[in-house]
Amino acid sequence: MFKRLLQLSLLFSFFIVEAQAPSNYYNSTQGKSGFELKTELYQIISENHAPQTYTDAWTFFENNDATQEGNVLDIYSNCTFNFGTPEFGGNQDTGSGGNTECEYFNREHVFPRSWFGGASTLPEYSDIINLLPTDKKVNSERGAYVFAEVSNPNFVSSNGTARGNSITPGYSGTAFEVIDEYKGDIARIYFYMATRYENAIEFWVGNNENGDFYLDGSSDQVYQDWVIDLLYDWHVNDPVDQKEIDRNNATFEFQGNRNPFVDQPDFVCAIWDVDEDNCTFSSSEFTLKDEVSIYPNPASNGLFYVQFSSPLDQLQLYSITGKLIKEVQPKKEEEKVEFNQLKAGIYLLKVSHNQQNSTHKIIVH
Predict the structure, then answer these.
(1) Which residues are CB-contacts of 363 (< 8 A; sequence separation ≥ 6)?
(2) Which InterPro entries match (predicted)?
(3) What region, left, alpha or beta, does residue 117 occupy, with left being phi > 0 and alpha being psi -120 to 50 degrees?
(4) How far apart are CA 186 and CA 182, in angstroms?
(5) Side by side, which strands form the sheet with 356-364?
(6) What's the pTM value of the predicted model, to 2 decimals?
């Protein structure tokens, strides 16, 4: 089964990090819920949306989609791309090539452009919230396939992104699955598209067969029931992180609007009523991350330590493919646990205490 940690999805807590929306930006949403709230958000994020050009996305990427090392942050691969065109030492797509992974990166419409009508459909085509830099080859392999959970992949990228048969209840066709680290990012983009283009999205049915598997032909719910369930799971289990917050703030400067589901993640359940019992998340409930210190991270020589100021019940280290590597139940007197002899790669550390969980990404060189 090709599900990197999705089998653990219900065990991971939803940790809210607040973005920096302007004061009073969402004041008019007070007291609203359901599709009335969605329509109010549509008004807010549409009013001052000043679309930039599709070409401007290259500059936005360079300023806001970089790794700590200054390379292109690509959700589809582990390639080391440089910004800029090839003549200046970069890997930006110039219209040819890209038949092998790690050759060029291009501009991916996360919600495929064929679903909404293509390059002539504005401002959808140049909306930076729906545009991410991705490996050109992997982008081509994705095409316009839906996002879902897959098994028996017939294509796997360098970071584990895969195309295969859907195992998501409600859909059995070909699908594309990103790694867990980016599932929430994808979901929040799709919730944004359903909201920002509320005035048009009901008319997108019929544009593309793959899109029709996702869309329900309405302007309120927008997506099929199985899609809402999937996206909500991804939204909860890959919560908003600093990378998304920074990009959302940059988006506001760039095109004048924001993704409200990055700013206030609980808008999702308040609108689509997918989890009424847990719709309001209190940041005070999730303090476990503050109790844990991981160093060095990135780790070198296959070694890192987990130090904690309060007793922990359990530490579980998983590979990016979902395999349990090591499980530790610290003794009461312990304040530090060592993880060693690890191969280079990306790991997820799940920390548990008193029915709270927090998840930490570990990079091992």
Answers:
(1) 297, 298, 299, 346, 347
(2) Endonuclease-I, His-Me_finger_sf, Secre_tail
(3) left
(4) 6
(5) 324-328, 314-319, 345-353, 356-364, 292-300, 303-308, 336-339
(6) 0.74
Chain-centre distance for alpha carbon 212: 22
Which of 235, 271, 172, 189 shows the shortest CA–CA distance to 14? 235
Q: Which residues contact 105 (CB under 8 A, 6 or more apart)?
A: 72, 74, 79, 81, 91, 92, 93, 133, 134, 135, 136
My answer on whether omega of the bond before 22 falls inside 30° of 0, hence cis, is no
Tokens linked to 222: 């927008």
Answer for the pair 238, 13: CB distance below 8 angstroms, yes or no. no
Q: How far apart are CA 15 and CA 94, in angstroms?
A: 40
Q: Residues 245-280: pLDDT tens digits?
A: 999 999 999 999 999 999 999 999 999 987 655 554
3-class secondary structure, 155: strand
For 325-346, what is each residue's pLDDT tens digit? 999 998 877 888 999 999 988 8
If we measure between CA atoms, which residue out of 142, 173, 146, 167 comes closest to residue 156?
142
Question: Using DSSP, how many helices (H) and how many strands (E) does the chain show?
Answer: 10, 13
* Closest by CA position to 226, among listed 327, 131, 149: 149
**Arithmetic mean of pLDDT, 104-121:** 97
Residues 6+ apart with CB under 8 A from 275: 232, 236, 269
Q: How many CB atoms lie within 10 A of CB 331?
A: 9
Contact criterion met (CB below 8 Å) for 281 and 265: yes
- Cα 113 to its chain centre, rounded Å, is 18
